[in-house]
Design goal:
Helix content is 46%, strand content 13%. By secondary structure, it is of the alpha/beta class. The protein has 2 domains: 290 residues, 7-stranded beta/alpha barrel (Alpha-Beta Barrel); 89 residues. The strands form 3 sheets. Strands 1, 2, 3, 8 and 11 form a 5-stranded parallel beta sheet that branches. Strand 1, helix 1 and strand 2 form a beta-alpha-beta unit. Helix 1 crosses helix 2.
């Protein structure tokens, strides 16, 4: 029998309005509130509410001992739920109360702080923990870094923060001949590793409605058969994807909701699998080997590296300019400064500056409010200029 670990990422950034040079020093309103509200309301209607209802029905029918899932919900998403769609937050709280959901820790701002500042990284992890405690009475024991960014040093930081395990990408460059369908552990820290099976995850997340895909249409029976055909000793399958896959990236008209429900019913009804959380994986599985990752890996794009966010000079300049302000921000107790500091660290801002236009170009256009990477860069740098002025004036 297979053990399927389903993990969903829930995140939306506070997107910036077009902020021009002449706004610097005049306006401190950085965010496009109308668009942010409209977008999360649309996603709530198309994805969050119907998918939460579906998961609730499945947990109620099969019980959390047979069907459980896990979520990482960023602080940015939680803030927008509270501001714009409180019914969605209530829906997630009700889902968590079923006992069939595990909440996973992450950076509060869905940031790239782990690549620049251990101090800021740890502060955000703790802030996210506090948010989960306040809103869900949850205490996460498993961690996922922003966009599954993982490397040896961050594993050491995460372990010292008290986490037992971390999620990572099962990249070919990492595993070589080995399979992601086992539990591993870090070579540098006492931390278990759950590795994403990117092939099976992306079959749903990216290829499900692609009519040019040789396996289209993907049916529940076909997908169940693929999982069943895995070698007998590969009992663990980690399926990690954006929650917006359901109803947003893959519209309801594609049959994504019906596919998911039918597939779960097949796996459970025919006793082919049970669905377990990362914490349950730790109790049911033993690590088969250590993993060393000296260079950061992620789950983004075909390269599985950092080039989605730091692959060109625009991104690197914006990233370095942002974190040059860290020391000044630390001297502040102004909640407005701290709020903007967190929101400006969200990884999406750098993602929008990406200049890839090959196999991953369409992915970078999704939810992107800008006409070009250069418009994204200019807007962001103008906002940073105003933010820097606010910092300097308040410290005089």
């Amino acid at each position: 029998m297979k053990h399927i670990c389903l993990y969903f990422q829930v995140h939306q950034p506070f997107r910036l309005r077009i902020y021009r040079f002449f706004d610097i020093g005049v306006s401190h309103e950085y965010y496009h509130d109308i668009n942010n509200r409209a977008l999360i309301q649309r996603i709530a209607r198309k994805c969050y509410l119907p998918m939460n209802a579906l998961l609730n029905r499945l947990i109620d029918k099969w019980g959390p001992e047979r069907f459980s899932v896990s979520f990482a919900i960023s602080g940015m998403a939680l803030e927008q739920m509270q501001l714009y769609v409180p019914e969605v937050l209530e829906s997630f709280q009700a889902l968590y109360a079923t006992g069939g959901v595990e909440l996973i820790g992450e950076t509060y701002a869905h940031s790239l702080a782990s690549l620049k500042s251990r101090v800021e990284f740890e502060a955000q992890v703790k802030e996210h923990r506090q948010a989960l405690k306040k809103l869900f009475s949850a205490e996460p024991v498993v961690f996922r870094n922003t966009e599954l960014i993982y490397y040896d040093e961050v594993a050491q930081w995460v372990s010292k923060l008290g986490f037992s395990a971390m999620l990572a990408e099962g990249a070919d460059t990492l595993l070589g001949w080995r399979s992601p369908n086992f539990l591993y552990h870090s070579e540098k820290a006492p931390l278990k590793l759950l590795l994403r099976n990117y092939r099976f995850s992306d079959d749903i997340a990216f290829r499900f409605s692609n009519r040019d895909w040789s396996e289209w249409p993907l049916t529940a029976e076909k997908y169940a058969q693929w999982l069943e055909e895995l070698p007998e000793d590969q009992t663990l399958v980690n399926l990690f994807m954006d929650y917006e896959t359901f109803g947003e990236h893959q519209w309801a008209e594609t049959g994504i909701f019906e596919f998911f429900e039918h597939w779960v019913e097949l796996m459970l009804g025919q006793k082919r699998a049970i669905f377990i959380t990362p914490s349950q994986v730790l109790r049911k599985h033993t690590s088969v080997s250590s993993i060393a990752v000296p260079v950061p890996l992620s789950w983004a794009d075909s390269e599985r590296d950092l080039t989605a966010w730091l692959g060109n000079e625009l991104q690197v300049d914006a990233f370095d300019t942002l974190y040059d302000l860290e020391a000044q921000v630390r001297d502040h107790e102004d909640p407005g400064i701290r709020r903007d500091w967190l929101r400006l660290q969200t990884s999406d801002h750098f993602y929008y500056m990406c200049t890839k236009f090959f196999s991953d170009g369409d992915v970078h256009k999704y939810f992107n409010p800008y006409h070009s990477p250069y418009e994204a860069y200019v807007t962001y740098m103008n906002v940073l200029s105003d933010f820097r002025e606010r910092l300097t004036l308040s410290l005089e």
